[in-house]
Design goal:
The chain is of the alpha/beta class. It contains 15 helices and 18 strands. Strand 16 and strand 17 form a beta hairpin.
Amino acid sequence: MKSDKTRKSTNFWEMVKMKSKPNVILVTTDQQRKDSLSCYGSDFVNTPNLDQMAQHGILFNRAYCTSPVCTPSRATIYTGSYASKHGAWNIGMNVPKNQRFLSECFQDNGYNTHLIGKAHFNAYNGTFEESKEPDKDWEEHFRNFHGPYYGFDQVELSVAHTTGGVKGHYGLWVKNKSGKTEFDSVRKANRSFGGEGYDWDLPMELHNNSWIVERTNDFLKRSLHDENPFFLSIGFQDPHHPHAVPKERVGEIQPSNIPSPKFSDGELDDKPPHYQSVREGRWNEDPMKGMYVMSGQGSGFDYRNIDDEDAQLGKAYYYKMVEMIDEAMGEILCTLDHLGLSENTIVVFTSDHGELLGDHGIWMKGPFHYEQLVNVPLLVQWKNHLPAGTEVDSISSLVDIAPTLLSLCHIPIPNEWNGLDCSMQWKGDIEEVREHALVEYVDDPQKLRLKTIINKRYKLTYYLGEDYGELYDLVNDPGEVTNYYDDPNYQEIKQKLLMNVIDELESIETRAQRYSYA
C-alpha cells in the first residue's frame, strides 16, 4: 500500500506529465475552397492572419477531404475513419457511435475537451429527441443542453448557416443581446441560384464569427487555471451558402477583382449524366434521384440562367465571408500569443469540403469530385516544434488529422481507425506518407454511389454498377475538362487506378478482434 507521501509524489509527477502535453485547437470552416486564402496564391482575396499562420507552420497544397458533404467529412476528421466505416454517409443523420471520436481519446487521456461553433454530428431537421442539434423548436433544448457530446465535456453549438443559422447556443447569445434571432436580408441577384449574395441586417457585433471569438477567448483565459491540457474544437459556419454579409461590410466587396467562373460550352458532354442533369436543374425529376434532394442542391437550379454579373457578385460575397473568418482567426491567434499559449498549442485549420462557385457550370457541392470541391485548405502551426514556412506537395487526407494529432500528443491511436500517422511528415523528417487519397460520396445507397482515388498525377472516379466513370490527367489537364475514362490510350492507367480503389476498400473493412485460435 502506497504511503501518503508516495501518493502525493505520484500525483505531482502525473500533473507535470499532463502539463507537458500540448494543447490542441482544431478549426474547421464550412465549404471553403483552397483558393480563398491568399497564402495559396490568390491575389483577389486578402487573408493576412492565415497567411501568417502558414508562415509560422505548414501549408498543405494537396489535402483532400474524404467526402464533399458536411457530416460525412466532419465525422471522418473526428474518427480517423472513412464514411464507409463510420457510417454517416450523408447529412440528415446522426454519426453512429461505433467509432471512437478524437475528443474521446483526448478526454480519456486527461484533456479538457470543448467545442465551440458548428459540429453537424447530428441531423439538423430532427426533433430534439432525435438530434442534439435541431434547427426547429431549438431554444428550450439549447438552454438545457451543454454536453457531454461525442467526447466533448461541454459544447457551445451553432446550427445551420448565415441567414438561417442564428440558432443553437449562438442563437441564444444573439437573442440575449438583441431580443431577436431573425434579421432581414436583401438578395443581390436577379434570381436565386444558391450562390447569390445577400446584404444582411445582422450587425457585425452579433455575427457568428464574433460569438466564436468571444467564446474562444473566454475558454482560453479560463484554461490558464486548469491543470490539464485542452482539446478545443472551433467550427465556423461560413462561407457556406447563403452568401450573406452584414450590411456594414458590404462596401468592402469589390466584384470586379473576382475572377469569373471557369466553364466552357460542351465541357460536361463527356461526364456522367448527373452532371448535366444538375446543371440544368432537372435532377429532382431524374430517375437516379434518391429519397432526398441532393445535398447542396436543394430543389434544383437551372445554372444556365445565371448572368455573369450575378455570378461574379455571388463569388465576391463568398470571398468576403472568408476574409471575415481570417479576421476572427487573427484575434484567436493573437489571444494565444498574449496568453503565452502558442508554443504549447497545436493549431490545425481546415475545411470539411470546398465549393464549386460556378466552375464547371455548377454551384455549391454534390457528387462532383473536382479539385475545387475536394482539395481543401490545410494549415498546421505548432511554434518551435514543427518546421515554419514549410509547404507539403505530396498527397494528404483529412482522415489522417486525428491519428496524427494523437501521435504528436503521445496518445495511442485506436486500431480501428483508417487514417495514417503523419507526425513524421509534419515534423519534416519524411516527405511522403500516402500515395493516394480516397474520396467517397453516397447520394442514395440504392442509386448514385461513387468513389474517387487521387494520386500524384491522376484522378479516377468509379460509379457503382455503371459502365461510365471519370479519369483525369491532373498534370496535362489541371482544369479537369477532358474525361479519359474511355480513351484507349488510358486503359492501362485506368485498370491500375481501379485496383487502387479495391485495395483501399479492402484495407478499411471492419473486422472484429480475434482473441484466440478457436
